[in-house]
Design a protein that fits this description.
A hairpin with a 6-residue loop joins strand 5 (about 40-45) and strand 6. With about 90 residues, the chain is mainly beta. The chain contains two helices and eight strands; from the N terminus they run E-E-E-E-E-E-H-E-H-E. It has a two-stranded antiparallel ribbon. It has a two-stranded antiparallel ribbon with strand order 3-4.
Length: about 90
């Protein structure tokens, strides 16, 4: 089955990533769940003081990613851009 992951930027523009590869998912038995469950490897870091989320290698292997530090390096902003394409 296809799964759509919806991302949005600071302007409210919505981007849909469609996951078609069943190897993108983590079996429930690997993370303490049941055999009839699976998980998308996107995890929140609850230990730091920032709002951080991690996309696992299983997810990222199917997408092209570009990391752009221009906002912080060039313009002194407190964020960076990450581009994700399929």
């Amino acid at each position: 089955m296809d799964i759509t992951i919806r991302l949005f930027d600071e302007t409210g523009v919505v981007y849909d990533l469609i996951v078609k590869n069943e190897n993108t998912f983590v079996p429930g038995t690997e993370v303490g769940g049941s055999p009839n469950q699976c998980y998308i490897p996107v995890f929140e870091d609850k230990h730091g003081d920032q709002d951080l989320w991690f996309l696992g290698n299983i997810f990222m292997k199917d997408f092209y990613t570009a990391f752009d530090m221009t906002p912080s390096d060039t313009y002194g902003k407190d964020y960076n851009h990450i581009g994700i394409g399929h």
